[in-house]
Amino acid sequence: MNTVENLKWRYAVKKFDENKSLSETQITILKEAFNLTASSYGLQPVKMVVLQNKEIQQQLVQHSWNQPQVAQASHVLVLCIPKEYDIKNIDTYFSLVKETRNTPDEILAPFKKMLTDSVTSKTQEELAVWNKNQAYIALGNLMTVAANEKIDSCPMEGFIPQKYDEILGLDKHNLTSVLVLPVGFRAEDDYMKDLKKVRKNIEDIIIEM
Q: Do residues 48 and 138 make contact, with C-beta atoms less than 8 angstroms apart?
């Protein structure tokens, strides 16, 4: 099956098979896909919690608008952004660039200054919006890769970040949760499993120039 067929196969799972779990290989693919996701300037401000703990997953259901998929899923991927974002992140990035590419400082300096000036000119609220936008890019990439690997998923914005942060201990990592993606395998009795996908016609959503 090609990518388009796999995306037709994908849907937001309403019920996972609790008796099936992702393999280590499948989890590794999702981790690598997350790490390879594009991000603004390549800064990678988003981190991902990979949760496989039924007790904690069950605790999170009540803070997820009672969506049972959080408990049913093989794993729950929680995308997080920094609570406080500063130029230390810029310094870390350019250290990695130099280590990876051995780029001379005189070449990196103008770009580093531009990013430093950009970050320091923004409020924490503005930086949070910017970083959350990067999380959405990661979410889309994870969903597409999951579909290509025949891994089911259900993207969620409907949860209480403060409660997730508390239960997962994200404060000590200077992180706050922004998006949730339970992953696993669809249940045979998921009522959505065999329904036709509802989408507009291509000509209604594409403008060619």
A: yes
Question: Nearest Cα to 49, choosing from 145, 168, 198, 141?
Answer: 168
Confidence of residue 1 (pLDDT cuts 50, 70, 90): low
82: which DSSP letter? E
How far from each other are the two terminal CA atoms of the chain, in whole angstroms?
30
CB atoms within 10 A of CB 156: 19
- Cα separation values, 144 from 36, 44, 45, Å: 13, 19, 20
66 dihedral zone (left: phi>0; alpha: psi -120 to 50; beta): left
For the chain, give the number of residues.
209
Listed in sequence order, the residues at least 6 apart from 199 whose beta carbon sits closer than 8 Å to its beta carbon are: none
Inter-helix orientation angle 161-168/54-61, to 10°? 160
Span 148-157, pLDDT tens digits: 999 999 999 9
Paired tokens of 28: 């590794």
Model confidence, pTM: 0.97
Mean pLDDT score of the chain, rounded to an integer? 97
pLDDT tens by residue, 157-171: 999 999 999 999 999
Q: Which long-range contacts (CB under 8 A, 24 or more apart) does 36-40 make?
A: 36/141, 37/137, 37/138, 37/141, 37/142, 38/137, 38/141, 39/134, 39/137, 39/138, 40/130, 40/133, 40/134
